[in-house]
Amino acid sequence: MDPVLSVPRAKAMEESTVDCGKLAFLPTISFTVGGKEFQVSAIDVYYILKVGEGATAECISGFIPMDIPPPCVNQGKRIKT
Q1: How many CB atoms sit inside 10 A of residue 50's CB?
Q2: Which of these, 19, 41, 45, 18, lies nearest to 31 by C-alpha position?
Q3: Burial tier of 8 (Cβ tally within 10 Å: 0-12, 13-18, 19+)
Q4: Is residue 1 part of a domain?
Q5: Is residue 17 part of a domain?
Q6: How confident is the model at residue 15 (pLDDT cuts 50, 70, 90)?
Q7: Dihedral pair phi/psi, residue 65, rounded to 5°
Q8: In the structure, how many helices (H) and strands (E) does the chain have?
Q9: Residue 3 has pLDDT above 70, yes or no
Q10: How confident is the model at residue 35 (pLDDT cuts 50, 70, 90)?
Q11: Does residue 48 surpass a pLDDT of 60?
């Protein structure tokens, strides 16, 4: 089981939910684009979508995992796949 996401690791390639009560414990995430750093936090609901209110609320991760293989390289030259 993933320690933050409430799904088994095998299911992590699907939409993931987070315990809405743990939003304050999720990290601030930084992205650097064009040399400028952008920070997003879960508590400000930038990468977690909260649907509903109270005990029926669901918190859904805005991140979608992608399994992208590394590029193929042969003697320093990229190989078309």
Answers
A1: 14
A2: 41
A3: exposed
A4: no
A5: yes
A6: confident
A7: -70, 145
A8: 0, 7
A9: no
A10: very high
A11: yes
CB 23, CB 42: distance < 8 Å: yes
Mean pLDDT of 41-68: 82
The pair of three-digit structure tokens given for residue 22, joined into one six-digit string? 């743990």
Residue 77: inside a domain:
no
Is it the case that residue 16 has pLDDT exceeding 60? yes
Q: 13 lies in a domain?
A: yes
Which region holds residue 10: left if phi is over 0, alpha if psi is between -120 and 50, else beta? alpha
Domain that holds residue 18: 9-65
Q: What's 46's domain CATH number?
A: 2.40.70.10
Task: Domain count for the chain, please give it.
Answer: 1
Q: Which two tokens stand for residue 54?
A: 């109270």
